[in-house]
Specification:
Helix content: 25-40%
Domain Peptidase M20 dimerisation: 183-288
Low-confidence stretches: none
CATH topology of the largest domain: Aminopeptidase
Shape: elongated
Protein name: Selenium metabolism hydrolase
InterPro entries: ArgE/DapE_CS, Bact_exopeptidase_dim_dom, Peptidase_M20, Peptidase_M20/DapE_YgeY, Peptidase_M20_dimer, Peptidase_M20A
GO molecular function, one term: acetylornithine deacetylase activity
CATH superfamily of the largest domain: Zn peptidases
CATH architecture of the largest domain: 3-Layer(aba) Sandwich
Largest sheet: 6 strands, mixed
Oligomer: single chain
Keywords: Cobalt, Hydrolase, Metal-binding, Zinc
Number of domains: 2
Mean pLDDT: 97
Strand content: 15-25%
């Protein structure tokens, strides 16, 4: 018989721990933790996990923190990346991004929505599970993962491929405004290189200007972006030119190379091969003898480990009637006595590896809102932390009930 879920007690406990979650989140925010510099925040999370009574806490060779609650045979994971982007132009901030700010409703600071708030709620969900004796035939794995902002999904490629950890499903705690998210477009990082021949700038006809050759390519890329494939749920694929590079002997010379980076978002049904081929087929790329390639990522983690990967991050989604959606729907209705909103992310998450590469189902539910990500004056809501802590505590038993149907 399925264990009954004490929804009212879970909500009560989550509210009780609001101040603790706020304090913990502000502690994390106060520690700068951009990609590959997460060591101090990882150890701060380890301290909190041990304090609230996690059964086991490990740090893997890449530097991800893995906290376990329970000892049952069904492995469920919940994930928050705990690296952040930089602060950008400090003049755009109304408060110090690391000292942060707080009032009765919100917490401000870099990483509050994207996405250390998810970690605060997960850790205290573990505390709620322990307080209320909600352990069952499951093991809950809470992961604080690194390098996501630099290379989304790389951390979970390592967890699955090298740590040999394969949960039955994963809850991503990226910001969803406390809604259930069931997919996202994929992405890839593309480069176009165009060759040229330098000469003195006083006689440009003697050379072959690579920057001029790139000009028509940019126009054709802009037009290509308007006719990319569309999916009814995930929307249209997109592309944007995000960087431009060149080489030239001097400011008085013709450029002898030019390159651009392209951020390409892939909707359902699009492939990385197709995305490269459609750019290679552009007339201006052919005329310029452009070389189209995909970037690779080879940056060392804070532990010094290098785990190279192609910069391809697959599209993924779960269907509306998938067991992950039903699991979260059951928990949400039981806790809050209302129907949840089901939607999708605009941006990319670690789901690109968990489900996109490895086929392990992912579902999203997190505190904070997408528009706060990477923005100045980033903030999250204290009530979101409470809502999410309650959900994370209830989800494992909701899943066990789903298995017994």
């Amino acid at each position: 018989m399925a264990k009954q879920i004490p929804f009212d007690k879970i909500v009560e406990k989550a509210e009780h721990y609001k101040k603790d979650m706020t304090r913990f989140l502000r502690d994390m925010v106060a520690i700068p933790s951009e990609s590959c510099d997460e060591k101090r925040v990882i150890h701060r999370i380890k301290e909190e996990m041990e304090k609230v009574g996690f059964d086991k806490v490990d740090i893997d060779p890449m530097g991800n923190i893995l906290g376990y609650i329970g000892h049952g045979p069904h492995l469920i994971a919940m994930d928050a990346h705990i690296d952040t982007v930089g602060i950008g132009n400090i003049k755009n901030w109304e408060f110090d991004p690391y000292e942060g700010m707080e009032n009765d409703e919100i917490i401000g600071g870099r990483g509050t929505s994207d996405q250390e708030g998810g970690m605060a709620s997960m850790v205290y969900a573990g505390k709620i599970i322990k307080d209320l004796g909600l352990e069952d035939q499951y093991t809950l794995l809470v992961t604080g993962t690194v390098q996501e902002e630099d290379c989304d999904g790389l951390c979970w490629q390592y967890i699955i491929e090298q740590d040999k950890i394969k949960p039955e499903f994963v809850v991503s705690t990226e910001p969803t405004d406390c809604q259930i998210y069931r997919g996202q477009r994929g992405r890839m990082e593309i480069r176009i290189d165009v060759p040229g021949i330098s000469c003195h700038g006083s006689a440009p006809e003697r050379g072959d200007n690579a920057i001029f050759k790139m000009g028509p390519i940019l126009g054709e890329l802009q037009q290509l972006g308007k006719r990319l494939a569309t999916d009814e749920f995930l929307g249209q694929g997109t592309l944007t030119v995000s960087e431009i590079f060149y080489t030239s002997p001097s400011r008085c010379a013709v450029a002898d190379s030019c390159a651009v980076s392209i951020d390409r978002r892939l909707t359902w049904g699009e492939t990385w091969e197709g995305a490269l081929d459609e750019i290679r087929a552009l007339p201006a790329v052919k005329a310029a003898k452009g070389v189209v390639s995909m970037y690779t990522y080879e940056r060392a983690s804070w532990t010094g480990l290098v785990y190279p990967t192609e910069c391809y991050f697959p599209t993924w989604k779960v269907e509306e009637d998938h067991f992950t959606v039903k699991t979260l729907d059951r928990a949400f209705r039981g806790l809050f006595n209302k129907e949840p909103v089901v939607d999708k992310w605009t941006f990319s998450t670690n789901g690109v590896s968990i489900m996109g590469r490895h086929g392990i189902p992912v579902i999203g539910f997190g505190p904070g809102k997408e528009p706060e990500a990477h923005a100045p004056n980033e903030k999250t809501w204290k009530d979101h932390l409470v809502t999410c802590a309650a959900m994370y505590a209830a989800i494992p038993l909701s899943y066990m009930a789903e298995l017994k149907k």
